[in-house]
Design brief:
alpha+beta, Arc Repressor Mutant, subunit A, GMP Synthetase, Chain A, domain 3, 3-stranded mixed beta sheet, 11 helices, 8 strands, 44% helix, globular
Amino acid sequence: MWEYSEKLKDHFFHPRNVGEIKDYDAVGEVGSLACGDALKLFLKIDPESDKIVDARFQTFGCGSAIASSSALTEMIKGKTVDEALKITNQDIAEFLGGLPEEKMHCSVMGRDAFHAAVACYRDEPTPREQLEGNLVCECFGVTDEQIKKEVRENNLTTVEQVTHYTKAGGGCGLCHEKIEELIAQVRGEHGKEGAEVRKPVKAMTNIQKIAKIQEVVEAEIRPLLQRDGGDVELVDVDGNTVSVALRGMCTSCPSSQLTKSGIESKLRELVHPDLIVEEVAG
């Protein structure tokens, strides 16, 4: 597993500014439960000074997503909107004492949520709407313009890095060739000569796969569901099919299908891209 700084763990176990602002001046939403990570950011802004007087968030995601959201709210409070817009996803990661590269998409999500909230405040199109572009990764809904933006801003050179920052390419893998072409395009290369192919998934025995699935369920997924009164139980693993039973509030939640999709996405990201999650009666 990855190594996390003490500051990151503090913001995960004791997140700041969790919740919503009822009379917010701006709100930004990014991600989706189906993709495994979602963030909703609320801002209260003083109209005279343009300073952010309060910021709160609601998130569904891993520990790094929670910590990144918590860090972001601490970083932007007290700043003017224009000052806060200068904060990059790299700044969020550095504030936390670093993020594993595999988790950099969490800092990107925080930055994007803030930019979306500012667009809401200023009645402008969101950055995602401005980028639009053509869909490249159907698994996670990432466009070519979004990929090119992260390649430019974070100096990405491989498909694997693009996956870490955007999740694109982290599902079925059919978009890897297109991602390579986009990297080459941004870096001014011709063809694919300068772009590395994403490293193949490390082979695991069935016992290793089951152990890794159990580890991710216990360390990453269950704590998030339990925060909202839900839970999940790992029932069986048959090849690449993972059977789970939803517990607690998850059983009656109208978004239980999205919860299942979120679990599947997280297991594909952290264990193996071919895993399929099915819900069974417990």
